[in-house]
Amino acid sequence: MSEPISHADIQKTMLQQQKAEQRKKQLLNLVLLVLLLAAPAVLYPVFLMKILCFALFAVAFNLLLGFTGLLSFGHAAFLASGAYTTGYLLSTYPGLSTEMGILAGTAAATVLGFCFAVVAIRRQGIYFAMITLALAQLVFFFFVQSEFTGGEDGLHGVPRGYLFGFIDLSNNLAMYYFVLAVFLGGYLLVQRIVGSPFGQVLKAIKQNEARTVSLGYNVNLYKLLAFVMSAGLAGLAGSVKTVVFQLASLGDAQWHTSGEVILMTLLGGTGTLLGPVIGAAFVVNLEYQLSQGPLGDWVDAILGAIFILTVIAFRSGIVGEVQKFMRKNLG
Questions:
Q1: pLDDT tens, residue by residue, 18-58
Q2: From CA 94, how far away is CA 159, in angstroms rounded?
Q3: Is 123 helix (H, G, I), strand (E, B) or coil?
Q4: Secondary structure class of 29 (helix, strand, coil)
Q5: N-to-C CA span, the chain
Q6: How much is the pTM?
């Protein structure tokens, strides 16, 4: 006759499983770091920087959609607000350091995210999504009409400057490793948020908001904080992108960009940490490859078809499907 399993044994088993998951996560982070450090030896640094900027944008968006269950159709507004703020300040004030310009852009996006959240956060589902879209369109028209943005021409010739006063960012390799450091900082921050008690509450809100309310949590406050953090990280991505390409344009503020980050997140896998990174790399690379060939005019149609296919057949995304396969076959 088998002995009954004690509570201590259950706790020990759970602790071992948590440690194993932590080791897997650390190993995955290490492999990702090594690949990213070596990538400029194989691929063009500017292309890699574009992937990293959009990967950070997708990671920020996934914090809201994948872990909180809030679908925003207006995240392009935060990308653009960070981009325009950084571009304007660095172009207008030559004495301003690059890092301060980026921090200012991130702060502007964070404040805008708070304003969006105050208006939209009490709504749910399609109503929340449409409010964010409407607010983002207001921001888009503000950028079109404002003189400081350059209107339809955008801001050109934004100086890269020097990081900390002595690292010349006009060197693409130096710029790449700076962008990589920013991306890794944002990625690890989201990883820490998701694994914290705060992140567990966000997951609970996504799974069953009514039950989370019944447990005594201020759900609206948690959603507001998640929205603001997501907006700030999206603004950081936009600020860095402006420095990389020395350009801030209306393309960053268009609704199309909001739809693109949704595609990146869904394709890679919502609710996974690595999914948005994979999705961003896939979409950016696909757009580049298609634009170089005879299908350049069909980029949007092809991306739309991929979006439909993902929603219908691969709802867990690339990373989610791989995880399900591994759990099913490898235990």
A1: 676 677 777 877 888 888 888 888 888 999 999 999 999 99
A2: 8
A3: coil
A4: helix
A5: 27
A6: 0.90
